[in-house]
Every structure is written in C-alpha cells, then in structure tokens.
C-alpha cells in the first residue's frame, strides 16, 4: 500500500491540480443548475397542460384545474427526479449502486415519456397531425371516387359490345328478308326472331346511353365535394371546427360514391345476356318449313354464342376490384400525433428532448466526478488545500492560540489574587481580639 505521508509525485500533483480545477467548474455550474432544471420542468409542464386540454371535452373550471394539476405534478416530478439523479448517480462509486441508479433513471425516463412527452408532442404538432389525417382521408376518398367512376365507365363501355351484337342481328335479319340466309325471301319466322333480339338489344343500348349523363354528373359532384374537403384541410382557423365541416362533406361524398356504384350497368347487361338466348318466341311449328327450321337452329346457336360473349364481358367488369368503403373518423390531436408519428419526428424529438435533456447533464457530471476522483489519487485533505483555505486555517489556529493564551492569563491572575488575599479565619480572630 502506498504511504500517504510520502510527498506527491509531479504527475500526482498535476492530477490534483486538474481535479481542483474541475471542482471549481462544478461549483460554478451548480449555482444555476437547479434553476435550469426548474425552467425545463416548467416548460414541459406548460406543453403538457396544452396537450391535456386538447383531450378534455369540457372547457369548464373543473377541466382547467384538472389540466393544471396534472401539468404541475409533471413539472414537480421532472424537477425532483432529475435533481435526485444529478446528485446521487455521480456520487456513488460501487458498480452495483451505479447500475441500480442507472436502471432507476431508465425507468423514470420511460415514465416521463409516458406521462408528459406524448402530450408535449400533441401540443407541438397536434393541429398539423389532425390536418394530416384530413389530407389522408381526402386521398382515400379520391381514390375510392375514381375507382367507382372507372368501374362505371367500364360498364358504359359495354354499350359498344351490345351495339355490335345488335348490329349483327340486324344484318342477319336483312339477309333473311332478301333470302340470302334461309333461301326464302320475306319476313318469316327467322326474320321475326332476329328482329326480336335486335330490338331487345336496342332497348338495352338505350338504357346504357341514358346512364352516361348520370355517371358524369355524379363524378362531377364528387370532385366538387373533394375540392371543398381539400380547402378545409389547409384553411386557417381552429382545426376542430374544420373537422366538423369536413365530416359533413365526407358523408355527402360517401353517398356520391355509393350512387356511382349503383349506376354501373354491368349487372343489367349480365341479366340481359342470360335472357337473350333463353327468351326466344318461336312461331308455330306448322308455319316453319324445313329450311327455316334449320336456319332457326343456327340462329339460336348464334344467339347463345353472342349472349355468352356479352355475359363474359359484363362479368369482367363486375369482377373489377370494388372501391374501398371509406369512413371518416374524427380523432383528437393526441391520437393524430401517435397515428402519424412518422411524419412528425422533429416534433417528437423536441417533446422528448425537453424532458430527457437533464440525462445528458447527469452523464456529464458522472464523467467529471470520475475524473476528479482519478485526479485526486492518494492525495489527502491536507494536499488539497488552496492558498486561501490555508490562510483561513492559519487564522483559525492563531485565534485558537490567542484564546488559549487569554485563558492561561486569566487563570494566572486568579491564582495571584488568591495568594495575596488574607486568610478569612485570621481576620476574624484579629477582630475578636480587638473587641476584647
């Protein structure tokens, strides 16, 4: 073991001066560290109050006092917790004690984030997060509207398939009328069957054409609603009031999308295609000659083929992915900040930093205290005295010596007085003899 009575080596003396310099810096920093912690705690409490206020529906006195009490509790908790950590964690020396306090700091930091930081983030970016929610909802509605319109337009495209089949039946009927089909000119059974189906397809084609203006009108109305919803997203003013108007527009837009889905004529085309070959009105058998009978069989075969082609085209439209059912759900600022946390990383970083910044100060003090202990080495208290402290110690020693000297002088004077003072018994005897 090193003898502490031996003089310090030059390196030990240098380390001691280094430690004393660090102690001087810590002493100066300690003069305002508590005030800095208080400012951080109060700032966090203010933003916590704003975050709690956004969660409370009531704006009365009770809600005010509840939010105020919570924010004050957060401020006091943050100040006390970091004061404990800043004083105790750098001071302990054993690994077990340091690990225990470090785990306590981790647990306390998690508690601070849970009770304060997310509310601070809600206060910092709550309105922007709600606007982000509105913007995302508008995008979803726009996608659904465009999808419904695309399906409706695809269904309207079936008009060309219907027109093509109708035209083919009309051409066949004209050929039958001139005798080119069955060999018998005229408007007989084959002609009537072909005309019957062409007229059915013409009626279906007219229904499809009648749907086109309604589809375009619904799409135009939906775009107008989307325009108003986008304006509400970026419009100045409280976001809570804009959310109410946004919700009303969302309900209207959902109705428009439903209307567009109902305007699709694809199911109607499927039903018409199924009826095309099933509902054939044939004339009496006695009226049909052999040539016409074979022609009618051929016509029925063609009807079945064309009906199957038309049905497949309509079912392909029906099989297209349907537009998603979008429902706008209003959310609070705190919920919006959590839902869209990835879009507000700077706000989250600021909200957490204002609560956990003292942890950096704790680590700084820990490193500095370790450097001070290393610099002291085996130096004793007498080696760490500064010139001012040494002068003060000498002054104290002189005052003690003066006090001891004054005490000795008082004792000596008391002894001399006692020696010079006559004996009381002798004085009494002398007085008695004089009286006699």
UniProtKB/TrEMBL annotation:
Organism: Psychromarinibacter sediminicola
Transmembrane segments: 26-50, 62-84, 96-119, 348-368
Protein's recorded name: Uncharacterized protein
Recorded superkingdom: Bacteria
Region of interest called Disordered, as start-end residue ranges on this chain: 411-436
Keywords tagged on the record: Membrane, Transmembrane, Transmembrane helix
């Amino acid at each position: 073991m090193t003898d502490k009575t031996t003089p310090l080596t030059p390196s030990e003396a240098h380390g001691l001066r280094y430690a004393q310099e660090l102690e001087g810096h810590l002493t100066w920093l300690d003069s305002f560290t508590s005030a800095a912690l208080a400012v951080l705690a109060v700032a966090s409490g203010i933003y916590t109050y704003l975050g709690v206020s956004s969660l409370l529906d009531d704006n009365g006195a009770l809600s005010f006092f509840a939010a105020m009490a919570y924010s004050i509790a957060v401020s006091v908790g943050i100040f006390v917790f970091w004061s404990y950590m800043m004083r105790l964690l750098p001071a302990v020396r054993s690994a077990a004690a340091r690990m225990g306090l470090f785990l306590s700091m981790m647990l306390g930091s998690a508690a601070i984030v849970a009770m304060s930081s997310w509310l601070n983030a809600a206060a910092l970016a709550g309105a922007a997060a709600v606007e982000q929610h509105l913007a995302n909802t508008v995008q979803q509605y726009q996608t659904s509207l465009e999808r419904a319109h695309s399906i409706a337009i695809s269904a309207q495209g079936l008009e060309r398939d219907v027109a093509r089949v109708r035209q083919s039946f009309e051409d066949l009927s004209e050929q039958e009328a001139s005798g080119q089909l069955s060999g018998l000119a005229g408007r007989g059974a084959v002609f009537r069957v072909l005309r019957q189906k062409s007229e059915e397809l013409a009626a279906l084609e007219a229904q499809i054409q009648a749907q086109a203006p309604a589809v375009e009108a619904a799409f135009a109305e939906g775009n107008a609603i989307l325009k108003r919803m986008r304006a509400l997203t970026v419009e100045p003013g409280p976001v809570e009031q804009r959310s109410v108007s946004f919700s009303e527009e969302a309900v209207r837009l959902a109705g428009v999308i439903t209307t567009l889905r109902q305007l699709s004529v694809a199911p109607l085309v499927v039903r018409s295609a199924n009826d095309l070959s099933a509902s054939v009105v044939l004339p009496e058998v006695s009226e049909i000659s052999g040539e016409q009978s074979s022609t009618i069989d051929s016509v029925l075969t063609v009807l079945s083929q064309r009906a199957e082609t038309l049905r497949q085209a309509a079912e392909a439209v029906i099989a297209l992915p349907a537009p998603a059912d979008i429902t706008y759900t209003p959310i609070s600022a705190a919920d919006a900040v959590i839902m869209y946390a990835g879009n507000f990383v700077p706000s989250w970083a600021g909200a957490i930093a204002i609560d956990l910044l003292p942890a950096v100060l704790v680590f700084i003090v820990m490193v500095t205290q370790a450097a001070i202990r290393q610099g002291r080495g085996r130096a004793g208290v007498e080696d760490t005295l500064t010139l001012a402290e040494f002068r003060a110690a000498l002054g104290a020693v002189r005052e003690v010596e003066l006090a001891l000297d004054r005490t000795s002088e008082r004792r000596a004077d008391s002894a001399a007085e006692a020696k010079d003072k006559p004996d009381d018994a002798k004085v009494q005897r002398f007085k008695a003899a004089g009286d006699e």
